[in-house]
Amino acid sequence: MRTRNDALKSGIALLAAALTLTACSTTTTPERTPPSKQASILDTGTGFTVAEEVRVGDDARRQYAVAMQQLARNDYKQGIALLTEVTKSAPNASAPYIDLGIAYGRSGDLDNGIASLEHAVSLNPRHPVAYNELGMLYRKKGEFAKARSSYEKALALSPQFHYARLNLAILCDLYLADTTCALDNYVVYQQAVPDDKNAAIWVADLRSRAGK
Fold first, then answer.
1. Which residues neighbour 19 within 8 Å (Cβ) at sequence distance 6 or greater?
2. Digit-coded pLDDT (tens) for 40-95
3. 8/171 Cα distance (integer angstroms)
């Protein structure tokens, strides 16, 4: 049976799909994504796609595409190097920093991962994926209060974002011993993802332990 820790969900299927880079002249200055604008998030049925349109040069667009290929192959060293170059070309785009944060986190560099994601939310504080990913890294560092706050911010922006919903339930269940929070969020997650058989098991187990 899959454990709750195994179920922790990243909001981006392959570290990618967070950014749509629009080609433009290499001399064009990248446009800032307005901090007040919420990122566009779409439930595809198999995951979530988040779109952020930013005008950058052709070289940065190619670097980003290659970086996504490297990360999909778990080549974090090369992917991180390329994404770092993209952030120099598009310093005001949050998505490359999100992907950097995920890549750093998966490579075991939690501090740089958190720094990248915190920078992403400073650029766009209405990006639910960034908060979900940040919550996961805070949880790995044992900063559970910060993790909870991050998941709750993601859900406040996008209540249907069931990856953050499950992550919050697991955090409350296994790390915070907050039965009410855990059960409430497991139930909402189960309603959103009825095909996840493990969710039903977790809900039944928690209700049994809580005497409900």
1. 51, 52, 54, 64, 93, 95, 96, 99
2. 555 555 455 566 666 667 788 888 889 989 988 999 999 999 999 999 988 888 88
3. 9
Measured CA distances, 131 to 141, 192, 196 (Å): 15, 20, 23
pTM metric for this prediction: 0.81
Report which of 153, 166, 127, 108 is spatially closest to residue 117, judged by C-alpha positions: 127
Q: In the chain, where does DSSP find H-type helix?
A: 58-72, 76-89, 94-106, 110-123, 128-140, 144-157, 162-170, 179-192, 197-210
CA 92 vs. chain centroid, Å, equals 18
Give the separation between CA 151 and CA 173, rounded to whole angstroms: 14
What phi and psi values does residue 22 have, to the nearest 5 degrees? -95, 125
Mind giving me the DSSP string for 88-141? Answer: HHSTT-HHHHHHHHHHHHHTT-HHHHHHHHHHHHHH-TT-HHHHHHHHHHHHHT
State the average pLDDT for the chain: 80
Q: What are phi and psi of 90, to 5 degrees?
A: -130, 65
**Contact (Cβ atoms closer than 8 angstroms) between residue 96 and residue 79:** no
